[in-house]
Design brief:
The protein has 164 residues and is α+β, with helices and mostly antiparallel strands. It has a single domain, classed as Roll (Nuclear Transport Factor 2, Chain: A). It is built from 4 helices and 8 strands, in the order ββααββααββββ. The strands form 2 sheets. The chain has a 6-stranded mixed beta sheet, covered by helices on one side. The longest helix has 40 residues. The chain starts with 5 loop residues before the first strand and ends with a strand.
């Protein structure tokens, strides 16, 4: 056919012109579809990884291991934790505050997270909204949190935590 259309006669109808297949358009359609499928799959995988970090934090807290609990946080002086006493900057300061406030099994109790929403902001950022609950013999505590996760060196880390 050499790139030209051909006429096809149909019974009692006007001729229909068929165009040759445009391989560039087909390739572009397939490539775009594959990119969309891969991005959707990666987004679901990222969300699973973030939820797994929160599940691991719960396990570590409930074992009384604050150092491992903090493994979900960015080990940087730029980490921000916002709580009832204001803003704390830095990983070491945040860990020190946790150790001061939750200095034993009675204070730590058992942690439960209720994840309300996990929202993708970009390929490198997710926002998480949830509720935290501490069941303790010295009195239960609960509140809400918002977390900003950032992908750093291929791993998701909490870079900002607002818990109240």
């Amino acid at each position: 056919m050499n790139g030209q259309s051909r006429k096809v006669r149909t019974l009692g109808l006007a001729p229909v012109h068929l165009q040759p297949l445009n391989m560039k358009k087909i390739f572009l359609f397939i490539a775009t579809s594959l990119v969309i499928i891969a991005a959707t799959a990666q987004s679901g995988n990222d969300k699973k990884q973030i939820i797994e970090i929160l599940n691991q934090q719960t396990l570590y807290w409930n074992k009384g291991n604050l150092e491992e609990f903090m493994s979900g946080y960015w080990q940087s002086d730029s980490l921000m934790f916002i709580g009832k006493n204001g803003v704390t900057y830095g990983y070491a300061n945040t860990l020190a505050n946790y150790k001061k406030s939750y200095n034993g099994p009675e204070q730590m109790g058992k942690l439960f997270f209720d994840i309300i929403k996990v929202q993708k902001l970009s390929s490198d950022y997710y926002w998480v909204l949830g509720k935290w609950m501490l069941k303790r013999t010295v009195g239960d505590l609960s509140g809400h949190y918002t977390l900003l996760f950032r992908k750093i060196a291929g791993k998701w880390k909490i870079v900002a935590d607002h818990s109240s």
